[in-house]
């Protein structure tokens, strides 16, 4: 799945539950945001809560990223 995301600029996934694809995708998005310039993420879900939940998981990953490797600005992740 990660290889597919990396090789395709636009990716749509259809998945069954409990496959942890959302976790992998949010980790990949956080990685791309940290180490790529001019990277944007668009999230579409059946409900706004699903999309917001994904964005929240990316935000949590970014907030918990080691400060030894990356220096945060106060308003970078909200």
In words, what does this structure look like?
This protein has helices at residues 2-7, 21-35, 48-63. It is globular, with a radius of gyration of 13 Å. It is mostly helical. The model has no long low-confidence stretch (mean pLDDT 77). It has 3 helices and no strands.
Q: Cα-atom Rg, whole angstroms?
A: 13 Å
Distance between the termini: 28 Å
Decide which structural class fits the backbone: mainly alpha
Low confidence ranges: none
Instruction: Spell out the helices and strands N to C.
Output: HHH
Count of individual beta strands? 0
Number of helices: 3
Q: Averaging pLDDT over every residue, what do you get?
A: 77
Q: What is the 3D shape?
A: globular
Biggest sheet details: none
Approximately how much helix is present in the residues?
40-55%
Residue fraction in strands: under 5%
